[in-house]
Write a structure and sequence with these properties.
mainly beta, nine-stranded mixed beta sheet, about 240 residues, four-stranded antiparallel beta sheet
Length: about 240
């Protein structure tokens, strides 16, 4: 039997606003045909969970569990891909549980130990945006924060934003350490001190009340606010147009 499919009109996306709704979107966007798989009246959510430096050498995070609290779950494949159903809500927070074994494709070999969550936006999913999340091993956490120039602060949150589409400048409302980003296709594709890229990281974000606003330049679909948890990486993806 052919899996059910949902056709989302750009006009619906334009109307998706509010605290957890979409950001600005180009009114000329064509309708997007989303394969909802076997999710029925829920929302199909697919994406990847990959290593921190996968832009230089691809490394999926294998055998991690991605779970909707009180709902569905899926284990990641060796390439880090997952596929599960979400409640039909403006946004959903998912928890990640890593396997205890060391990564098989990082050097030095080490385990993923920092708590990590994914924050999925219905508007971004229905715009055709691809969700790509990252985490670092214990060893890479140390060397990366040496590069950033500040020590890792377990009392603060860490935020990773993936931009599906052209590079954008990303900002957070909460105070944070020096922003670093990766711009794919540059001569030196590596983390650099900038707020503009396809993958943008905000270290040591003040948790405050547990949420912060997210800003993005240009036409894009993005959640307006995201959750913050001390000692945890919040992963969010946005769709630039």
């Amino acid at each position: 039997m052919t899996p059910p499919r949902i056709v989302i009109l750009a006009a619906l996306l334009l109307g998706a606003c509010g605290d957890d709704g979409a950001g600005p979107i180009d009114s000329g966007v064509a309708p997007v045909d989303i394969d909802n798989g076997l999710c029925g009246d829920q929302i199909r959510f697919t994406g990847e969970l990959v290593d921190w430096d996968t832009h230089t050498a691809f490394c999926g995070i294998n055998a991690a569990t991605v779970e909707v609290p009180g709902g569905g779950m899926d284990g990641t494949a060796p390439n880090g891909r997952f596929d599960l159903c979400l409640p039909d809500a403006a946004s959903t927070r998912l928890n990640v549980t890593f396997a205890a074994a060391n990564s098989q494709c990082t050097s030095p070999a080490a385990a993923y130990t920092i708590p990590t969550i994914l924050y999925a936006s219905k508007a971004v999913i229905q715009s055709g945006g691809f969700f790509s999340a990252r985490s670092f091993t214990t060893a890479r956490q140390t060397t990366f924060f040496q590069k950033v120039g500040v020590p890792f602060d377990a009392a603060k949150a860490q935020v990773f934003v993936h931009v599906d589409g052209p590079a954008r400048t990303i900002t957070l409302g909460a105070a944070h350490g020096p922003t670093h980003a990766v711009v794919v296709g540059t001569v030196s594709t590596d983390w650099a001190a900038t707020e503009s890229g396809q993958d943008v990281f905000f270290p040591n974000v003040d948790v405050g009340t547990g949420t912060t606003t997210l800003g993005i330049t240009g036409n894009a679909v993005a959640p307006e606010s995201i959750p913050l948890i001390a000692g945890t990486i919040t992963n969010v993806s946005v769709k630039s147009l």
